[in-house]
Predict the 3D structure of the following.
Amino acid sequence: MTLDRAVLAFAGFVVLVSLTLAHFVHPAWIWLTVFAGANMLQAAFTGFCPAAMIFKAFGVKAGCAFK
């Protein structure tokens, strides 16, 4: 798995978990979805992604998006 796919999979996981928590636990969990979306949007324009930095530190091989 490349770094690009790991970041996309993690973002999707965070969105699904936060929506589940918002539905079953408390509606305020929707803010985690907002945060994930805002982070994906800013990463698209700036190239800075904290999740990519963490995955890279764990040794996930680089893809073409995050170098």
